[in-house]
What we know:
The chain has 57 residues and is mainly alpha-helical.
Amino acid sequence: xxxxxxxxxxxxxxxxxxxxxxxxxxxxxxxxxxxxxxxxxxxxxxxxxxxxxxxxx
Length: 57
């Protein structure tokens, strides 16, 4: 699971190379990448909302 999280984080920041992407999708489950991606997106949106609300005070 840690490898999936690292891969999704690398893709989020745009630093994942083509070789790693092919390796991940060749051996990993697409569902795991989708679920982790959705969770990471929700965490990012929550953090942005938290920072925005703190800055607005």
